[in-house]
Amino acid sequence: MEIWINPACSKCRSAVSLLDAEGADYTVRRYLEDVPSAQEIQDVLDRLGLEPWDITRTQEAAAKELGLKEWLRDAGSRERWVTALSEHPKLIQRPIITAEDGTAVVARSEEAVRDALGRR
């Protein structure tokens, strides 16, 4: 199990605290420092069953600079979105937990973290 976090994020800290409290075996990836490649983002999206725009923080300054709200949200635009996420990792929703069963969750709530824990 791996969790992508930004240590400055309270939801990330809460998720890590819950994983610790449950004695989970996991690896922390500080994705702003260890930036995921476009392929890694694509792999996580596949595990999540989501599209890149579903995990994009559209209120971030970089999103506004790029004009993401105007970008098409279709299959033809998918690669453009994934590239933007890999080039601007602050745009990636957090935390994301990749579970041992090959799935992943955006763990912004205690329920989502517990869901990931149940997928061992």
Automatic annotation (TrEMBL):
The keyword Membrane does not apply. GO terms for molecular function: arsenate reductase (glutaredoxin) activity. The keyword Oxidoreductase applies. Gene3D superfamilies: Glutaredoxin. It comes from the Bacteria. Keywords: Oxidoreductase. Pfam families: ArsC. Belongs to the ArsC family. This is Arsenate reductase family protein. The lineage of its organism: Bacteria, Bacillati, Actinomycetota, Actinomycetes, Kitasatosporales.
